Structure formats: C-alpha cells, structure tokens
Amino acid sequence: MSKIADIIKYEGDNTTFIWKHPCEDFNTLTQLIVHESQEAIFFMNGQALDLFGPGRHTLETQNIPLIGKALNMPTGGKTPFHCEVYFINKTEQMSIKWGTDSKVQYMEPTYNFPLSIGASGEMSLRAEDSRKLLLKLVGTENYLTQAKLTSFFRAFLMTRVKSYIAQVMRTNAISIFEIDENLAMFSNAIKNLLVNDFAEYGVALEQFFVTNIVKPDGDSMYEKFKSLHFRQYADIAEAKLRQQTDLIYAETEAQKVIIDSKAQATKRAQEGYTYSQERGFDVAEKVAQNEAVGEFTNMGVGFGTMAGVGGAVGGMVGGMMNDAINTAQAPATTPAQPTDDMASFKAKIEKLTMMKEAGMLSEEEFNNLKAQLLTSIL
User: Fold this and answer.
1) Using one digit for the tens of pLDDT, what is the confidence trace for 150-162?
2) Out of 40-44, 106-110, 356-360, 371-375, which region has the weakest mean confidence (pLDDT)?
3) Mean pLDDT of the chain
C-alpha cells in the first residue's frame, strides 16, 4: 500500500547543505513547504526534474509540469506516485576550518632563501547552484553535511591552497617577516583564486581567512634573515631617537644660555654698567691680584680710560689712576732712588701693553703714557 504524506518540509539542521526527505511515495495533493534560503528539487526515476523556491506548494500536475510529462496520471489525480525530494540549504555556513597537511616550499621573495611554511584558517561556504551541487557531490546519498563537504574538498584544497600561497607570496613580494600585517590582503588574494574552483561544484566561497602562518622558528637560515630584517628597522629607530635626543639637549642648552644672558643683562641694568664695562672690571681685578693696589700709581693709566668703566667703581678707579699720573708728573722733590732702574721701567711698560690689549687703552693713550714714563725716569 502506498505511503501518503500530507506535508513535506525540511527537517535537517543548519550544518547540512543537502537533505533528502524520507518520504518517496506521496499523493499529488501533498503540500510542499520550502523555507527562505532553501530550494527543493524533485527526482523521478533517477532524473532531476522541477526545482521549487521558498513558499507553500501543492503537488499536482499543474505545479510540476515535468512530472506531468513523465507520468500518466490516473483519472481523479488521487493515485500516489514515486518521487524523491531533496532540500538544499542555501544559508552561508561559517567557521569551516581548513589547514595545509604539509609545509609549503617556496623561495622567500624579499631575501631569496628557501622557506617552508604551513597555514590554516577558516572559510564560509554557501550552496550556489543546487542542481550542480546535488548531481556532482550527493548522488544517491541522503544528505550532505558540512563535514562531508569539507572532506570532499580536502584533497583539492590541499593542492590548490599550497600552490596559491606560494604564488601570492611571490606575486605580491610579501616578506615572511611581514606576513602577519598583510593577512587580510593575503587571505583575499587566495580567496579570489579559489572562487572558481568551488564554483565548479555549485558552491560559493563567501569568505576565506588565513588566520595562522606556521613559520620555521629555530631553522638557522630563517633565524639569520629574521635577525637581519628586524635589525635594520631597529638601527633606523635608534638613530632617529638619538637624533631627537641630541636636538632636545641642544635646544635645552640654548634656552639656558638665553635665560642666563637675560639675567646678566637685567643685573647690569640694575647696577648701572654695561658688558664692556664689566670686562674692564675683570681686567682691573686680575691686575690687582698680581700687583698691590698701591702700584697702580706706577702704571700710568689714563684717567679718561678708567673713568669710562662706569658708575661709582669706575670713578673711584679712575680717580686713583689720575692721582697716580699727577704724582708721576709732579717735579721730583727728592733725588731718584737707585732702585728706579730699567727693570722697573720694563715692568710698567708690560702692564701698559696688557691694558692696551684688553681694550682699556687706545694706541694713542698707550703712547702718551709710555712717553710720560720715559719722562719720569730721565
């Protein structure tokens, strides 16, 4: 006796690509329910006939014309007939893992040394051409799960993916030491090469991700070029850092000089003298350290020169020098002492010379004072 089915609908899970309904003999008035993102294909006598999209369908000859041509229906349309119904799940199925079963051998494009790497990741697939997928991969089986589809593709994935990895690395000149930062581009390039391979079986490759590259850590050749690669960037970074540090130090020192100069200028302005006058103080102090203060009377320094040092100190020093010169020019009241000899004259000339070189005496003042000294000893 024939089995009569009132409703035929999908009863598989979301990890299944194709599922065959167990009912094979059903009445022409049976209801077929196809959900969104599904399709249903009718088989009769081993031949794929009509394909139904989402919706509710009544199975009668008006809705399945190919069956009407293949089957001479009895009067009344109540007689059951033998057919098979396959549901195709067209949702995108994600997180399908893949990985190379052996290392990929190729020449590293940047440094040109032989290299072996492995790769793994995830992909997402979707049934694109229901009829092609059903006929090429399912045949007479009752279902096609995600795991079974992956196992079908495993061999061809291993061959194609390994070839494409080497090809993409070489074409795009991706260094093995920079592969991690280029994984998005790397993944997309391999996906574009794999799309047609999957399309041959009615499957759409929606996403393809390379999430891990197995590098030959520990290999002497690999470690050698790895060290050279990262050293060049480290040296550049170190040189830039040293340059920045030196620049900051130079700018700091320049600011310190500017601040010190401003402080000195403010101090001079408050005390009433200039930088050139301060230098004159320094020279006078050095002379005073080498000779007793009273010996300024023997140096013949012009009043105009020392009086120009500035302020009260300049006036005082200038006054002392003026008194010394007046004393030297006054008529001698006592005979010259024996100690006033040539050696003393030379010492005084040297002191006048030092003051001229320090800028405290002009050439004319120096000559006048030297003449006065000569007069005083004659």
Assistant:
1) 888 888 788 889 8
2) 356-360
3) 76
Question: What is the DSSP pairing of strand 84-89 with strand 38-44?
Answer: antiparallel
8 A C-beta contact, residue 268 and residue 279: no
Integer Cα distance of 352 and 346 in angstroms: 10
Looking at residue 22, the DSSP 8-state letter turns out to be S
| Closest to 29 in 3D by CA, of 66, 70, 57, 2 | 57
State the virtual CA torsion across 179, 182, 183, 186 in degrees, nearest 10. -100
248: left (phi over 0), alpha (psi -120 to 50) or beta: alpha
Residue found under tokens 């069956």: 67
Q: Which residues have CB under 8 Å from 36's CB, separation 6+?
A: 54
The pLDDT assigned to 263 comes to 80
Phi-psi category of 272—alpha, beta or left, where left has phi over 0 and alpha has psi -120 to 50?
left
Across the chain, where does the E strand assignment appear? 7-9, 16-20, 25-26, 31-34, 38-44, 47-52, 55-58, 81-82, 84-89, 93-99, 104-107, 114-127, 143-145, 203-214
Q: Where are the alpha helices (DSSP H) in 16-93?
A: 65-70
Rounded Cα distance between 307 and 157, Å, is 102
Query: Of 16-25, 319-328, 339-348, where does mean pLDDT reach its minimum?
Result: 319-328
**In sequence order, which residues have a C-beta less than 8 Å from that of residue 257 and are 6 or more positions away?**
none
Sign, Cα dihedral of 177, 180, 185, 189? positive
Please name which of 42, 25, 33, 28 lies closest in space to residue 9, comparing C-alpha atoms: 33
Give me the mean pLDDT over the 123-149 stretch.
88
Output the CA torsion sign for 321, 324, 326, 329.
negative
The yes-or-no verdict on residue 295 having pLDDT over 90 is no
Q: What is the tens place of the pLDDT at every residue in 271-287? A: 666 666 666 656 655 65
What the block records as the tokens of 25 is 């003999």
**Contact predicate 194/161, CB 8 Å:** yes
The per-residue pLDDT for range 181-218, each reduced to its tens digit, is: 889 999 999 999 999 999 999 999 999 999 999 988 88
Q: Are 119 and 213 in contact (CB under 8 A)?
A: yes
